[in-house]
Structures are given as C-alpha cells and as structure tokens.
C-alpha cells in the first residue's frame, strides 16, 4: 500500500502504525511522487491526503480511478464540512477520514478497504493442522501456539491465501515488503526458513526451485 502525505511527521506515524499491522508501506510526500510510484507498483490501498503540493490530491485520486485497477483510496483531509466529504467521494475515493483521527480507526478502515481489493478470504485460514485467525492474528499448529514476527505472519497469510498455488520470491517481496527492499536480497528465503522452523514438522512450506514457495 502507499501513504501520500506531505507532513513528514504524520507520514512517519502512519507508516509505522500500518507496518505494525503487517502492511508493506511505501510513502510519497507530494502528488507528483505519488503518481510516479503508482505507475510503477500495484497497490491495494492508497491513503491519500487531499491537500498535496505539486499535484493536488483530487487529481491524484482521479488518476487512480482512471487507471481502472482494483486500488482503493482512503482520502484524508482537514476539512470536516459535509460538502468537502461529498466532493472527495464524488471524485472516486472509497472512504474519507477527517483530521485529526485515531490511528486505530485509520488501521480499521485500511483493513476494510484491503479486503475489498481481492476475493473474500475466510477470517480463519486452515490447512494441514495449521490455523490462522486473522481477526486476532493468532497462529496455531496442531493446537500449539506459534509466535511469529509481522513479516513471518504476513508471508504465511499470503501463502495460505494462495490455496496451494505457488508464490515467487518476487511476488512475496511485492506483497509483504516495501519499495526500499533490495530486489536481490535473500530476505524472503531467510524469512521462510525461520517460518518453517517455528511451524515445526512435518514441513508445510515447500520450495520449488526457480519457481517459489507453496503450502503443501
């Protein structure tokens, strides 16, 4: 996902809060930068400040809508008037949040929008004795509690959502890490290795050489 906010302190706070929720977050500080990043990446959700320099947030929203992707837009603004909110939604925003707001509410709205970008997934994912409750973010294997880092949890969820399909390392980088990650890193391999160790035996995550990973 991408956060577009010209106030660095607020942008940093939003990025930190959403990263804790296992989102991969890119940040843009003006509308021009946002459009450049949007052209290069496929984002599920864009948190978009309306009053942006270089290119106004309204125009960024129009460009996102015109691209006809599945991206959802949560627009932020300091204007609390109903007319301003109606204008933002009429442009094509999927949701609207007035500053100041609680980070918990922002997170809940982003999660709701993210669920609308893909086919509905069961709130509890199960496979071969593995159980992931996405509401409580708890993981168990054959009744044993498994403690995972945010990245390990996000990788596991993506693999389970693939329903036995193969996800390449590049796809996992795109879904779980942000744009600053080195595309030649071995981070995915190391994360999967730690995940396998924590999930225990028999091994559930299969590596297919030159292809990627899948849950058996």
UniProtKB/TrEMBL annotation:
It holds the Pfam family Trans_reg_C. One of its GO terms (biological process) is regulation of DNA-templated transcription. The modification 4-aspartylphosphate is found at residue 49. Residues 122-216 bind DNA. GO terms for molecular function: phosphorelay response regulator activity; transcription cis-regulatory region binding. Gene3D superfamilies: 3.40.50.2300, 6.10.250.690, Winged helix-like DNA-binding domain superfamily/Winged helix DNA-binding domain (1.10.10.10). PANTHER family: REGULATOR OF RPOS, TRANSCRIPTIONAL REGULATORY PROTEIN CUTR. This is DNA-binding response regulator. It comes from Parafrankia soli.
